[in-house]
Amino acid sequence: MLQNIRVVLVNTSHPGNIGGAARAMKNMGLSRLVLVQPRDFPSAEAVARAAGAVDILDNACIVNSLEEALGGCGLVLGTSARNRHIPWPLLDPRECAAACIEQVEQAGEVALVFGREDSGLSNDELQRCHFHVHIPSDPEFSSLNLAAAVQVLTYEVRMAWLAAQGQPTKMAKLETHAEQGSLPVTADELERFYAHMESTLVQIGFHDPENPRHLMPRLRRLYGRNNISKLEMNILRGILTETQKAARGEVYKRRDN
Amino acid sequence: MLQNIRVVLVNTSHPGNIGGAARAMKNMGLSRLVLVQPRDFPSAEAVARAAGAVDILDNACIVNSLEEALGGCGLVLGTSARNRHIPWPLLDPRECAAACIEQVEQAGEVALVFGREDSGLSNDELQRCHFHVHIPSDPEFSSLNLAAAVQVLTYEVRMAWLAAQGQPTKMAKLETHAEQGSLPVTADELERFYAHMESTLVQIGFHDPENPRHLMPRLRRLYGRNNISKLEMNILRGILTETQKAARGEVYKRRDN
Asked: Residue B92 and residue B74: Cα distance in Å, rounded?
């Protein structure tokens, strides 16, 4: 599905930016790069900045006009700085990504078009786009590096794509627990822990049930929001057990052995 | 509020990445950069890649340890690749940004921590973080450029900040209409347009009210979703008027004048 989304760079000056854009694309699972009259390409600097994304550079289409670059596209999205005077339907990057995914879900082709480093897209080029996309940068310092702009839009496309696939945008906490063979504790395990803790705190003289000063509720609030795993619980229970032994003077006895 | 969020780069190798990170930060309205033992800084390459964000480089704090970098922080978020074996609370970039804004709204200090280009943050460093953040890249090619990773997280912080301020993430369509001194058309203006269009289509022989073939509903659907401005409506109405004249043969008369 993502292969229906092409990134089009118009008249790029610095080959390093082409490499950086290729790396950003590949990080986000995109592969089709189209270069409209790049000033300096192929280039060793592009390869260096692409890191492992050289396949994207190797497979890049180089064309002579934006029109050629947009062949077959049902949706064309052009990046634009804030101060354009053409009134045009404008999307933020998240809306842009939603529009991309909607289009490719219907087997349509999409182009994300990025202009020159110094001057962006011309008015003529912007008028070939169905929508303009603006990255909401600080108005006092609004111009992003070209590869950084590609990174932001392709990141949003990936987030929207993962959501559309029902795929998580992160490993769930459960999985990380599971990696250590340990699921989250159950409520009753937590209760046994609190009981163990309370008796331990009494034993070491820190807690007086006759004058509780909200101690246990505070500890419950502290541990309760932590989503403790069984493994972690074993550690905490181990600490309590050892604390009880110490309170009974057993540590010293063992040391003597 | 955003000044309470610092970006911490640990043991950065390439000064270009420090410059790129500074530019990304400034684009997104952040200003506080902390460098833990950078390998090559200050550097002309950092200045070049920072573009106009040299003030951020000039004001960067250079420190000897991550501990120093995190002084005063109530929330520490560390970027992490997918395959870490420490189970730790993990956020995606959007959740990370929400946590940042929540913290700074309570006047807390936040650190976004980024590791080395080749090896990221060490397990020891990751354990100093309250949360880990993973940018959901393609598992086949998951390692982002350092400045690109700073760009993604600071972009999400800005999006969350704009939302928290009730500020738009883009110019509204209304504003772009307003730039041309033209507000969106009202429903009755739209109705008069459809009536004008229908009579015109009858005149040119394209539309037969006895056999309407859903023509008008289709045109309503087409124009209705376009949020047409008064200026655009004037243009469309002008076209209809001229079409009617043409249908009456008036164009030829005028040409003869």
From this structure: 19
